[in-house]
Every structure is written in C-alpha cells, then in structure tokens.
Amino acid sequence: MTNKHFLRGLALIGLTTAALAQAQIRIETSGVGANQIPIAIAGFADEAIAPQQVTAIIKADLARSGYFKIIDTGNVMSETTAINYGEWKARGADALVVGSVQKLADGRFDVRYKLLDTVKTAQLSALALAAQPQSTRVTAHRIADDIYEKLVGNRGAFSTRIAYVTKAGKEYRLEVADADGEGTQVALRSNEPIISPAWSPDGTKVAYVSFEAKKPVVYVQDLVTRQRIVVANYKGSNSAPSWSPDGSKLAVALSRDGLTQSYVINADGSGLRRLTHTAGIDTEPQFSADGQSIYFTSDRSGGPQIYKMSANGGDAQRVTFNGSYNISPRVAPDGKSLAFISRREGRFQLFVLDLASGQEQRLSDTAKDESPSFSANGKYIMYATESGRRGALAVVSIDGRVKYRLTTQAGDIREPTWGPFMK
C-alpha cells in the first residue's frame, strides 16, 4: 500500500464484517501459572430459579481474566452457611465465594454474595443486589468485578459492554454486547458498511461512520432512545470519530478541504474547528486521557506514524519511531501507554508503547490486526484479527500474558470498541 493511499486502506480495513450469534470464547493463557489466585466458588443456593446461572458467569469471568485458578467445590453454599476455613485452605483455596438467589414479590431477584479470605479467616466483601430478570447476567458480572477488585486491587471490567460491527449476508449490523460477548443487542442495521464505532464516556451513546448515504458520514446514536444525529457530513470523507473525555466533543478526520486532516467538533455537530494544517494526511485523531492532547496518524514523515499535539492545535511531536508504518493510536485510560497497530515484516500486529520510557512491546502474534481498544480499567486491549480467514475479536492483557478470543461460528466480526465503566 502506498503512503498516498494508506488512508483509503484504513477506511476499508474490516469492511467485510458478521453476526455474534452463538459467540464462542476460546481462552488461551500463558505466563500466569503460579501468579494465579486459587479461588473456590460454591454454587449459589437456589440459583436455579434465576434466568441465568450466576456462579457459571462469575467463574467464566474470573477464569478469562487470567488472574484466578478456579477450584471446583461441588458444593452449594449460601452466604449464611457456616464456614470451615481450615477445610477450604486445605483444599488449596485462598478465597471462597458463597451466595444465594431469592425471588422477590415484585418479580426481581435478590442476589447475595460473600467473599471470604481462607488464609486470614475473614470476610473481604459482601453484596446484596436486586436485579430484574433480564439483568441477571449484569448482576453476576458486577459480583465478578467486586471479587476482582478485592483480590487483584484494580477495578474489574466484566460488567462493561463492547460494540462491534458484524456482517450477515449483505447486512451490516452495529451490535452491543456484554464484555464476554453475550447479551447481544442490535443498535443499527444497514445494507451499507458501518465502521469506526466509539463509545461516549458515559456509555449511553456510540459514534460511528455509516456509508448509507453512499459516502462516509459520522453519526452519534443514543443507545437508550435509538435516536441519532448527523455530526459530520461535509464534502468528501467524514471518518474516525473519537470522544473527548468529558463527552462534549468529537475528534474527526475530514477531507472537506482536500487531503484528510484532523478536526474537533461539538457532539451535536456544531463548532467545527480544524486542528492540523499539512500537505499530507492527518487522520485517526484520539483525545488523550486528560483531554489536553490529541494523538493522530500522519504521513508527514513519508510513511504513517503517530504524532501528538495540543487539543487546541499547534505543533506536533512524533511519538512512534520503530517501524515504518504505525497507525490506529489508542490511549490507555490512565494516559500512561499507547496501543497501536504496526506493520513489520509484512504483518500488522498490536503493540503497546510506554509513553514515559518509550519502551514498546508486541502483544499479538497474528498478522492482520486492527482497531485496538482498551478496557475501562486499562488492563486489557481488545482488537480485531483473523481466525480461519474470518474476523474475530481478540483480547490480550497489557503485559501480554493473558490472551483469549471471541469468535463466531460463521462470518466475520470487526471494529471493536470497549465501553466505559457504567455508573
């Protein structure tokens, strides 16, 4: 691909995209081993009355994280069961999870749980959550989040959501699902491509690019009301929306004045302001975690590289120096690292760059990676890749030790974006 046409390549990557019906998760872990926390999760008392088996979801979440070794208990234990800590310690468990499910008079389910430390013979946490029948999965994810936070020390992201684009036949769909790929909902159907979805910071909206007008146009859609507005529909290409941390603005790439340049626009489509003024292509603008800077891809040095500039415009500093082709910058929630896609030896692979030290690490071993997106807690990166000539979503921890994939039985799935913590 020539430098002149790299933007076109970016826009067309992953346009053959598919349905996440019957999502299957394959978990590959490496390098964790002795670092895993052995945890026993007992069956919650009376959980069979709930639409979803709470303990199965908790176990799957914790196992997928790579931080836990799940010890099968074979027991049903409620939060009121008397605990023999020595017995569980002897079985190799450092922690024990117990709980129950009860149906309330109003039709909701009361889910209660306790997290117990078998070493210190103490209770670490307890929750009582009332959930609508359709929210049983979310409740289980929230319990897994609490366990993760209490034992690992970082906030869990199991109850966050993801958005992505699928293609079934000639139909493109923007879909939203739980972080584990379950609970899929369709936000938009179209016979034309949909690309570049991006979550709003409050998790209520998604910006994306749709080709339904026979050209790329940027929309923002409310996921609750399903109402949407056109944010950018200027002459030429309108692409690559990215939210400011406060949700008031979007950074976009527009070709309205010739070659593609980076702009900022209010989330309602007003107040367009141009950021870059070069004779090259400046695209894929992304706000920094504090909103003070913009990272973007530019070919001003001869090939696509990642640069950083003030959110108000002005001079830009080059960020990536290894390799001749670096694109798709994504900033970690804490602002300390940058995920990006680099082409080296003909392979497009996911890298992460420590912004303070300049040290980089390759996180993937595939060859057609694209669209990286950090989890809300910054501990994992989701990206699109290929598996058996079909699109799949892959997740890797930022240290590269934990890897798993979200694959479909048929078709492709692309363009992932990982949602924020929900309030």
UniProtKB/TrEMBL annotation:
Pfam family, one: PD40
Major localisation: periplasm
Keywords: Cell cycle, Cell division, Periplasm, Signal
Keyword Membrane: no
Domain of life: Bacteria
Domain TolB N-terminal: 26-124
Gene3D superfamilies: TolB, C-terminal domain, TolB, N-terminal domain
Cellular compartments annotated: Periplasm
Residue ranges that the Swiss-Prot or TrEMBL entry lists as coiled coil: none
Signal peptide: 1-21
Function: Part of the Tol-Pal system, which plays a role in outer membrane invagination during cell division and is important for maintaining outer membrane integrity.
Known partners and oligomeric status: The Tol-Pal system is composed of five core proteins: the inner membrane proteins TolA, TolQ and TolR, the periplasmic protein TolB and the outer membrane protein Pal. They form a network linking the inner and outer membranes and the peptidoglycan layer.
Protein family per UniProt: Belongs to the TolB family.
Name of the protein in its database record: Tol-Pal system protein TolB
Organism: Undibacterium arcticum
Gene (name only): tolB
